[in-house]
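Lecture notes, continued. The same structure-token format from the folding unit now serves as the input rather than the output. Read the line below as a description of shape only.
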């Protein structure tokens, strides 16, 4: 079996409750990782937000290179 390095990009639609648009943008960027909410209960209390849903909208490969050991 061969080994490959794949450059992959993903786009998500995130539903979030936040005080304002700036906070919503910032918290979505900081507290999401590979289609999951990585915030803690303490983060949500401290920054006053709640991520309700994350939906993968695009999953596309841009480059594939075979890796030689």
């Amino acid at each position: 079996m061969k080994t490959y390095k794949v450059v992959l990009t993903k786009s998500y639609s995130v539903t979030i409750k936040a005080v304002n648009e700036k906070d919503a943008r910032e918290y979505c960027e900081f507290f999401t990782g590979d289609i999951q909410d990585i915030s803690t209960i303490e983060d949500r209390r401290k920054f006053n937000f709640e991520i309700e849903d994350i939906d993968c909208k695009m999953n596309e490969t841009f480059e594939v290179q075979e890796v030689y050991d």
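Point for the exam: The chain has a mean pLDDT of 90.
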